[in-house]
Design a protein that fits this description.
- By secondary structure, the protein is mostly helical.
- Helices cover about 80% and strands about 0% of the residues.
- Helix 1 packs antiparallel against helix 2 and helix 1 packs across helix 3.
- The radius of gyration is 17 Å and the shape is flat.
Length: about 80
């Protein structure tokens, strides 16, 4: 499964949520997932969406303040 498909699905969800609200966006996202990936692939798709979304949130949190959290240990000099 390619990450570009997951990125496109997330992007569609974000735009739909900004325009029509959370409920409508969630319904369309789930219908897209089940139409695009039927059966066992839908569960795998949703797991990968969750993982990629978690990665993006962590990345954006880090970019907001890079000196907060465990990443600071990489910048600290060894004594």
């Amino acid at each position: 499964m390619d990450t570009t498909v997951i990125d496109e699905a997330i992007d569609k969800y974000v735009h739909e949520r900004m325009e029509k609200g959370k409920k409508s966006a969630a319904e369309r996202f789930l219908s897209y997932a089940y139409l695009k990936y039927a059966g066992d692939e839908a569960g795998e798709f949703l797991r990968k969406v969750k993982g990629l979304t978690r990665y993006y949130v962590d990345f954006l949190t880090l970019m907001e303040n890079p000196f907060k959290g465990p990443e600071l240990a990489w910048f600290a000099p060894w004594s």
